[in-house]
């Protein structure tokens, strides 16, 4: 009798496995559905609570054009870009400018190379003073040129800076 009971239980197990094989795709679908449903629900909730579909904000792009300077390139010194933060009470955040200087003598390069950090610091001092003087968009470029030339020539011994060129002048 015990053998008969075991055989019947064995038949039930085999029958259960046969049914499971027949419904394998359905069981897999249910398992995937149970896994995916919380993800879909979260996505729908996020979509509903964030109008616009979570689109990123558009950012205005700025293109910079560096104007070529027509001059004797042997005595032109490129000072690169200067960025100066503006005071908090001004609508703009900073101004950026790119400066090149025309030198009186090509021998002045050696002195400038040795004093480059000092000269850039002096220029930043002039620019910070101009930024704090009021509204930066009202700063005269000619006055700024004169101030920078005067400050730099006060530090140079072997020659002078004849002129300053602004290749970029942005108030952002």
UniProtKB/TrEMBL annotation:
<keyword id="KW-0283">Flagellar rotation</keyword>
<dbReference type="InterPro" id="IPR005503">
    <property type="entry name" value="FliL"/>
</dbReference>
<dbReference type="Pfam" id="PF03748">
    <property type="entry name" value="FliL"/>
</dbReference>
<keyword id="KW-1133">Transmembrane helix</keyword>
<keyword id="KW-0472">Membrane</keyword>
<protein>
    <recommendedName>
        <fullName>Flagellar protein FliL</fullName>
    </recommendedName>
</protein>
<keyword id="KW-0812">Transmembrane</keyword>
<keyword id="KW-0145">Chemotaxis</keyword>
<dbReference type="GO" id="GO:0005886">
    <property type="term" value="C:plasma membrane"/>
</dbReference>
<dbReference type="GO" id="GO:0071973">
    <property type="term" value="P:bacterial-type flagellum-dependent cell motility"/>
</dbReference>
<dbReference type="GO" id="GO:0009425">
    <property type="term" value="C:bacterial-type flagellum basal body"/>
</dbReference>
<dbReference type="GO" id="GO:0006935">
    <property type="term" value="P:chemotaxis"/>
</dbReference>
<keyword id="KW-1003">Cell membrane</keyword>
């Amino acid at each position: 009798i015990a053998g008969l009971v075991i055989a019947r239980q064995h038949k039930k197990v085999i029958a259960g496995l046969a049914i499971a094989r027949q419904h394998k795709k359905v069981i897999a679908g249910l398992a995937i559905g149970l896994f995916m449903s919380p993800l879909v629900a979260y996505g729908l909730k996020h979509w509903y609570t964030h109008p616009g579909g979570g689109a990123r904000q558009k950012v205005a792009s700025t293109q910079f054009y560096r104007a070529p300077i027509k001059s004797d390139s042997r005595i032109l010194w490129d000072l690169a870009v200067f960025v100066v933060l503006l005071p908090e009470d001004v609508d703009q955040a900073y101004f950026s400018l790119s400066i090149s200087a025309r030198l009186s003598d090509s021998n002045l390069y050696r002195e400038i190379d040795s004093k480059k950090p000092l000269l850039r610091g002096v220029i930043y001092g002039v620019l910070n003073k101009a930024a704090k003087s009021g509204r930066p968009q009202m700063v005269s470029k000619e006055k700024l040129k004169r101030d920078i030339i005067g400050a730099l020539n006060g530090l140079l011994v072997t020659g002078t800076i004849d002129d300053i060129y602004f290749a970029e002048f942005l108030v952002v």
